[in-house]
Write a structure and sequence with these properties.
It is found in: Cytoplasm. This protein is α+β, with helices and mostly antiparallel strands and 254 residues long. It is 31% helix and 22% strand.
Length: 254
């Protein structure tokens, strides 16, 4: 039987939507990535909007089946997602790596080997989490089997691993260099997912005339959303909140 790896669920609350999604996928919270596509409006009236979440099994690009809380399948109602720009199990042909890139590849390979992971480490063009100003950025992609443990919830383990790799690489090369670490193309899939989310929510904001706040995101992901909508004539974006709860608010442009 064909088992779905991603669903979108609409329910009265985020927790209820997540619970229903986990039941349909037959998975636990540690096995999935959860994206809150829309918060419930909480107005209490007949026009109150429900929560909408996308739940995807780790290691699979999302091609969701949308199901509301009651379980009735809904028609797609939106264009198919764009194909990924590069398959995560394919190595990009970037030519021979320079000295800094070669050092980053070696450091990453040695570090993961010492942790017991059997992986292939290849160069790639950095995902769109690099700062516009700062040192040159080197892209490194980690390929292998069952590497979801290196990513963590919202990429938190990957961020910690990237920080450690950056410390080791900078110590070896003796100059300020930034390494953008990826695992099986996770960052690229996440970037495409965030751009699609931003565009869908922007259309909803334009229709309703009301602002919508997205789930809390780290700075690099908020930047992707801001850039995705910076040329939109009907909406504007701003970050709101503090610390780990900081999120993007998409609002009608006045």
């Amino acid at each position: 039987m064909d088992r779905r790896n991603s669903v979108e669920i609409q329910a009265i609350s985020v927790e209820e939507a997540v619970r229903l999604a986990l039941e349909q996928l037959g998975r636990g919270r540690d096995d999935v990535e959860i994206e809150v596509l829309a918060e419930p409006s909480g107005g209490g009236g007949l026009d109150e909007e429900e929560a909408l979440v996308r739940v995807t099994v780790r290691g699979f690009a999302s091609q969701p089946t949308r199901v509301p809380g009651g379980g009735r399948r809904m028609p797609p109602g939106r264009p198919a997602p764009a194909p990924p720009r590069a398959m995560p199990d394919e190595e990009e042909d970037l030519g021979d790596p320079d000295e800094v890139t070669a050092t980053a590849l070696t450091v990453t390979r040695e570090l993961l080997g010492s942790m017991g992971f059997q992986v292939r480490v290849v160069p790639q063009r950095p995902a769109d989490d690099a700062e516009e100003s700062g040192p040159p950025t080197v892209g490194v992609n980690i390929l292998g089997n069952d590497l979801g443990v290196l990513i963590g919830r919202r990429g938190e383990y990957l961020a910690q691993l990237q920080y450690l790799v950056n410390l080791l690489v900078n110590r070896r090369v003796g100059e300020w260099t930034r390494v953008s670490l990826d695992v099986e193309g996770y960052k690229r899939r996440r970037e495409e997912s965030l751009i699609g989310l931003a565009e869908r929510v922007a259309r909803q904001v334009e229709r309703s005339g009301r602002p919508i706040q997205l789930e809390p995101m780290p700075p690099n992901e908020r930047r992707i959303v801001h850039l995705a909508l910076r040329d939109e004539v009907g909406v504007s974006t701003e970050s709101s909140g503090e610390g780990d709860l900081r999120r993007v608010v998409i609002a009608p442009k006045r």
